[in-house]
Specification:
Number of strands: 4
CATH topology: Rossmann fold
Family: Belongs to the adenylate kinase family.
Order of helices and strands: HEHEEHEH
GO molecular function: AMP kinase activity; ATP binding
CATH class: Alpha Beta
Keywords: Kinase, Nucleotide-binding, Transferase
Structural class: alpha+beta
Strand order of the largest sheet: 1-4
Radius of gyration: 19 Å
CATH superfamily: P-loop containing nucleotide triphosphate hydrolases
Distance between the termini: 35 Å
Shape: globular
Helix content: 40-55%
Largest sheet: 2 strands, parallel
Number of helices: 4
Organism: Nycticryphes semicollaris
CATH architecture: 3-Layer(aba) Sandwich
InterPro entries: Adenylat/UMP-CMP_kin (IPR000850), Adenylate_kinase_lid-dom (IPR007862), ADK_active_lid_dom_sf (IPR036193), P-loop_NTPase (IPR027417)
Oligomer: single chain
Amino acid sequence: GFPRTLGQAQALDRICELDLVISLNIPFETLKDRLSARWVHPASGRVYNMDFNPPHVQGVDDLTGEPLVQQEDDKPEAVAARLRKYKDAAKPVIELYKSRGILHSFSGTETNKIWPYVYTLLSSKIPPVLSDEEN
C-alpha cells in the first residue's frame, strides 16, 4: 500500500487532501504464505502463485516451458523480515489517519470476503458513474 511511511504520508499531504484511507488487516501467516508461494518467469514477468494460480507443470512457464524462479525477496525468511519492517514503518501512518478519522479497516484472509465491505464503503463515498444511455 501507499503511503508506507510517515514521510510518504507527509509528502502526500502536500499534494492532496485525503478523505478516505483503507487499511486491510491480513494475518501475518496468510501474507507470508501467499508471498512465499510466488514464482516468476524472468523473461516475461509472468507471475504464478503455487496456491491459487499455479503453472500447468510445476516449475515451468505455461507459454514457453522455461524454468520459473523464486525471487530472493519472496523466500519465506525474506518475506517475514519484509512484513516485520513494513508493520513497524506503517504503524505511525495508520495512527495518523486514525487520528484524522478517515481510516477504515477491514480484516480477513480472503479477497472475496473482504471486497463486499470495501465496495459498500466506496459506493457510499463515490457517486455512481452513469453510462450515456442512463443520462
